Structures are given as structure tokens and as C-alpha cells.
Structure to design on (651 residues):
């Protein structure tokens, strides 16, 4: 055995332990539901790409989701989903035209670009406040997710400290955007910059609901841009910054061209004709642009820069997230398509060897549909094998196919007998004193006859629902599993030949530290050819989580009623066993828990029949503790004639 736990010992393939794809699929489903509920629209959520953003049609989130940052991801997805609902993305195309108009016809590209980017940043900040207010007003129960999101990206301790100490108080666009970004922070100081109070008044956060469209937000953003430009030193305006960038570029280019490292400055010095008066601008009135002295340490300055970058990324919709490979993306999609969910099972109070104890339980994976995509994904290797990709599984697959084919043949014969369930028997009783008038007896009314009524009694079989649960632990491999498969397929095939008989087939296994229950076939939605096309990929390689899987399946078992007979048939060959670092499911605990699940079924009127394959007398004693009178001990060779016994139950 390979000692490297990151390598599959059978295939040599490296195992990516960094991401739990099953959990990612569950997170994605939950987040999608949240977004759809809040926005009232069917908005797709995906893990594609490295950035978290919305393109106006879908929401893209990162793949580094864990329990600790789930609330942040939900808040981010809700935020971006509300953009799709409320933001007019066509309005963004107007920013470029506005920037051209403000900069003027003689403006250079860099100046126009600076103007456009700054207005866009202002619009993003105001629009975020508008759509967040919408969520807070319409869905107050989701505030917690938004608080988690803003705690991560905005409410950093270093931001609070910077605002308290009066940092970022230079008349520059960067410092203005920093303070505007943090208007919601309780430590804000509206006197730290000349126009900050006026900007606060223009945005008017307390009355942000007055802004009903993106266009209205854009108008405010343009007004704020013009206001700040009017008070900034010339060198800090969009025009000044563009000019400085061009000068720096020219200086670098000229220095590279002559190899001197000094460029034209050297020439000016030599000729004594320099036009630089030391003011930082050419031909302009000298203004005091001396930066304020920071009270932060160098380390704190770096922390502040990092926090500001996170805020900028949030405003620009470019939050960096880890990426999924194409293979992982396909696996997540396959898990979603299969309806894979997680159910908490095994919790409660039980009798142990040393008195009562309370079990916290474990998350059981429930896969509601076996699909080809799920098989190709290769995620549940203790239960599902991809026979096309795994050379070592070809022998098992061939034997499985033979068992399935045999089951189809036996099922066809059983189905002919079960077709009696399609028949109706009608008994007509006449000369009654009440009921419907029998037309043939109307003439006798003239002779004083009163018993001229008739009644029709229609007798037909009730609808039946059978759930077949098969133990897919490693000890079932070989003859036991093949015979159990044959029996299950035979019953499913027979049911397909009747009008009022449905069958589900499920398997019990494990996946890592979780029990796993898979509903592989459901006649109410699956065609019979699914048995021959997909079922041969099922492989018994897990442990025996028995009652844990039964509990996860409870919500999928229909209760018996006046119109329905419900059955639960179990095939098993061992005692319940499942163990992790936090749970030891065996012995009394497992017996009691499984017995409770059986009792839950019988309380619903479900008839339970449990077959224990090749069990010893000692094993059967324990088996009866779980299944009671429904426990049957059978030899593996008796599984084929089992159809006769089941025929007696259903007919």
C-alpha cells in the first residue's frame, strides 16, 4: 500500500484533498436557493473563473468555501444577485461618453481614462448602497450574511484605526475614495477633507431609497466627481495625474533611448533652461500639497494598504477566489444534477455498556439519482466505479451485467404473475332497498315492489410502493451482491409491467468520513433501461452504516394509506458498523438506532422485510434486535427463489 495518503493506491492518481467537492455542491445549491429566494429570479450560480463577479446574467463565486466563510459567500452572492435584479448594466456604457464630455475635446486618452474609472468607482459605491438597502428592506432575515460580508471586506480593525488617527487626509483622489468607501464606518470623520461633508450630503445615506435607478446613482456620481475635481490641487486632478503619467513615461523612454538614465532633464540642466519651478506643476500657482505625517507604523501601513486593496476589489467586483479545475467543475455539476445532499443522522440518547450517552450524530450523504455524469465523475469510489476508466473493474462489471440480465429475465416471468394486479373485479348486487335504481326492476314498482335498487362493488388492488435497500459493504462482494442485484432487478422489472406498482432501489455504503445512501433507480421517473445501462457500475466497497442510511432515506419513504401499500425490503450480510474519529457506530448503539428507524417505518404503516444473508445464530439474535419479526435468515443460494415469497406478498 502506498503510504502517501494523497495518492489513490489503485490508480496512482493524485487525490486533491484541498476541496470537498460534495460540500461545494451542497454550498452551491444552498447559495443558489438563497439568491433565487431573495431576488425572485432564477439566477445561475457557478464556480467558474478566479474572480467573484456578476456579468448581469449569472453570479460567479469562489471555490474556497468552508464552514467558516460560508456566510461571507452567501452575502457576496446575494449582493451580486441583487445587482442582476436592480442594476441597469446598459447605463455603464454611458460613463465613457460622460468622461469625454467632462474632459473636453482636447483631452488626452489618459485623462479621459482617469475620469471614466473614477466616475465608475463612485457609481459602484453609491449603487452598492442602493441595492444593499433593497435587500435589508425586503429580506431583513438575510442581514447576517451581509454583515459577515462587510466584516470581511470593509470592517477591518486597521481601517478603524486609520480613521480614528486621521489617516488618508491628503487632498487626493485615493484619499477621497477611501473615506467615501467607509462612509458607513462609525469612525468616519467628515472634516478630514475639504469636500467630504458636501459629498456626504450628496449621497445622503439615510435617504438612499430615494435613488430608484442606476441612472440616478450615476447622476450623483458625476456631481460628486465634479465637486471633488474643483477642490483638488491641479496636480491631483484627472488632468494633472494624466499629465504626470505622460511626463514619467517620456522621461523613462528618453532615458532608455540615450542610455544616460537622465533623459531631457540632463539637457535642460546643461543649458540652464529648466522650466521646473519646484512647485510640482508647470506655470501653476504653488499650493501646499505636503502629505500629512502618518501615525501608523510601517507594519500597520502595509496592513492598511492590504485592507484598502480588498475594499477596492470589492467595489470593482474583482475579489480573488481560488479556481476549480475543469474536472472538479464537472464533478460539482454532476453532484448537483444527482441531487446530492447531506442529512444529519445518528443523533440522540442511547443505552451504552456503562449507562446512557448522547450521540452527536454524523452527516450522511444522500444521492437521489444515479446519472452517467456522476459515474464519470468518479467521486464515490467505494460505491460507484467508472467501468470505462477503471481497467481493474471490468471483471466485476461483467458479472454485474450477467446478474442484471438474469434479473430482467426472472422479472419478466414474475411480471406476468403480477399483472393480475391490473385486473378489476366488479360485483353487481340487485333488489336492494337503497342504492341506484335498477332500470330492469322499474316495472315492478307498479306491483308494490320496493327493492328496486342495485349496488356495484369494484374490487382492485391498491397501489404499491416498494423500496429495496441493498447493503454495499465490502463483505457483500461476489456471489452475495450479484444475487441481491438479481433479485432487486427482477422486482423492478416485474413492477414495470403493472400499472399500480412502483419500485425504488437504493444502496448503502460510505464515502470518506460519511455514510452514503444512493437511490439508484426510481420507477416513477426512471425508464427500465436504466437498470441495464447504469446499474452495473455499482460496487460493494464500503462499510455497513445500516440505520444511519435508513434515517437519511426516511423522507423518501411513502407512508401506507387507504390507497397505497408501502414496503421496505432490506438485503444485508453483516452487523452495522461505521467508524470515524468522532463516531463509533457499532454494537448496542447501532442496534438501538437501527431499531428506531425500523419503528419509524412501521409507525407510518410501511411493511418491513429484512433478509440477513448467511447469518449465524449469534448474528441473527442481534439482527432481530433491529428488525424484530421482519428479520429473515437466508442462504445466498436462496435469493433467487425469493421471488416466489415476494410474489405471495404482492399478489
Amino acid at each position: 500500500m502506498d503510504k502517501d495518503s494523497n495518492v489513490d493506491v489503485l490508480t496512482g492518481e493524485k487525490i486533491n484533498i484541498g476541496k470537498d467537492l460534495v460540500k461545494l455542491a451542497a454550498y452551491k445549491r444552498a447559495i443558489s436557493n438563497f439568491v433565487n429566494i431573495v431576488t425572485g429570479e432564477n439566477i445561475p450560480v457557478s464556480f467558474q473563473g478566479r474572480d467573484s463577479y456578476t456579468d448581469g446574467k449569472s453570479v460567479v463565486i469562489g471555490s474556497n468555501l468552508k464552514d467558516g466563510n460560508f456566510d461571507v459567500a452567501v452575502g457576496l452572492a446575494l449582493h451580486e444577485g441583487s445587482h442582476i435584479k436592480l442594476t441597469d448594466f446598459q447605463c455603464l456604457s454611458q460613463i465613457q461618453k460622460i468622461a469625454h464630455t467632462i474632459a473636453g475635446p482636447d483631452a488626452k486618452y489618459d485623462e479621459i481614462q482617469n475620469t471614466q474609472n473614477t466616475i465608475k468607482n463612485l457609481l459602484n459605491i453609491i449603487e452598492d448602497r442602493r441595492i444593499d438597502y433593497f435587500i435589508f428592506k425586503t429580506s431583513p432575515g438575510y442581514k447576517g450574511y451581509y454583515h459577515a460580508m462587510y466584516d470581511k471586506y470593509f470592517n477591518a480593525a486597521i481601517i478603524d484605526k486609520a480613521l480614528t488617527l486621521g489617516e488618508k487626509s491628503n487632498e487626493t483622489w485615493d484619499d477621497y475614495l477611501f473615506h467615501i468607501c467607509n462612509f458607513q464606518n462609525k469612525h468616519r470623520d467628515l472634516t478630514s477633507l475639504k469636500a467630504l461633508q458636501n459629498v456626504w450630503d450628496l449621497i445622503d445615506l439615510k435617504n438612499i431609497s430615494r435613488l430608484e435607478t442606476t441612472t440616478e446613482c450615476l447622476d450623483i456620481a458625476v456631481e460628486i466627481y465634479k465637486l471633488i475635481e474643483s477642490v483638488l490641487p491641479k496636480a491631483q486632478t484627472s488632468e494633472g495625474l494624466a499629465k504626470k503619467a505622460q511626463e514619467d513615461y517620456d522621461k523613462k523612454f528618453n532615458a532608455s533611448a540615450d542610455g544616460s538614465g537622465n533623459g531631457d532633464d540632463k539637457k535642460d540642466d546643461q543649458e540652464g533652461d529648466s522650466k521646473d519651478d519646484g512647485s510640482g506643476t508647470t506655470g501653476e500657482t504653488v499650493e501646499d500639497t505636503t502629505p500629512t505625517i502618518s501615525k501608523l507604523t510601517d507594519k500597520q501601513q502595509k496592513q492598511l494598504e492590504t485592507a484598502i486593496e480588498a475594499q477596492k476589489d470589492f467595489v470593482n467586483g474583482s475579489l480573488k477566489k481560488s479556481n476549480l479545475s475543469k474536472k472538479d467543475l464537472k464533478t460539482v455539476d454532476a453532484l448537483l444534477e444527482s441531487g446530492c445532499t447531506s442529512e444529519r443522522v445518528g443523533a440522540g440518547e442511547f443505552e451504552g455498556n456503562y449507562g446512557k450517552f448522547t450521540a452527536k450524530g454524523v452527516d450522511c450523504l444522500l444521492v437521489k439519482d444515479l446519472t452517467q455524469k456522476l459515474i464519470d465523475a468518479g467521486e464515490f469510489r467505494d460505491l460507484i466505479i467508472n467501468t470505462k476508466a477503471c481497467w481493474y473493474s471490468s471483471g466485476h462489471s461483467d458479472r454485474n451485467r450477467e446478474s442484471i440480465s438474469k434479473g430482467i429475465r426472472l422479472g419478466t416471468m414474475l411480471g406476468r404473475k403480477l399483472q393480475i394486479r391490473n385486473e378489476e373485479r366488479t360485483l353487481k348486487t340487485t333488489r336492494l332497498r337503497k342504492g341506484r335504481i335498477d332500470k330492469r326492476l322499474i316495472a315492478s314498482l307498479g306491483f308494490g315492489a320496493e327493492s328496486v335498487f342495485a349496488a356495484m362493488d369494484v374490487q382492485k388492488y391498491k397501489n404499491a410502493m416498494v423500496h429495496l435497500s441493498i447493503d454495499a459493504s465490502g463483505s457483500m462482494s461476489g456471489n452475495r451482491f450479484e444475487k441481491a442485484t438479481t433479485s432487486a432487478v427482477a422486482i423492478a422489472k416485474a413492477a414495470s409491467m403493472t400499472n399500480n406498482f412502483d419500485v425504488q432501489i437504493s444502496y448503502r455504503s460510505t464515502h470518506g468520513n460519511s455514510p452514503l445512501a444512493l437511490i439508484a433507480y426510481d420507477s416513477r421517473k426512471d425508464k427500465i433501461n436504466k437498470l441495464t445501462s447504469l446499474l452495473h457500475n455499482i460496487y460493494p466497497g464500503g462499510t455497513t452504516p445500516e440505520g444511519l442510511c435508513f434515517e437519511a432515506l426516511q423522507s423518501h419513504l411513502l407512508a401506507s394509506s387507504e390507497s397505497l401499500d408501502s414496503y421496505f425490503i432490506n438485503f444485508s450480510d453483516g452487523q452495522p458498523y461505521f467508524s470515524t474519529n468522532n463516531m463509533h457506530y457499532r454494537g448496542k448503539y447501532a442496534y438501538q438506532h437501527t431499531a428506531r428507524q425500523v419503528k419509524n417505518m412501521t409507525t407510518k404503516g410501511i411493511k418491513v422485510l429484512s433478509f440477513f444473508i448467511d447469518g449465524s445464530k449469534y448474528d441473527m439474535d442481534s439482527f432481530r434486535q433491529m428488525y424484530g419479526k421482519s428479520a429473515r435468515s437466508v442462504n445466498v443460494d436462496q435469493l433467487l427463489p425469493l421471488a416466489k415469497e415476494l410474489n405471495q406478498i404482492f399478489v
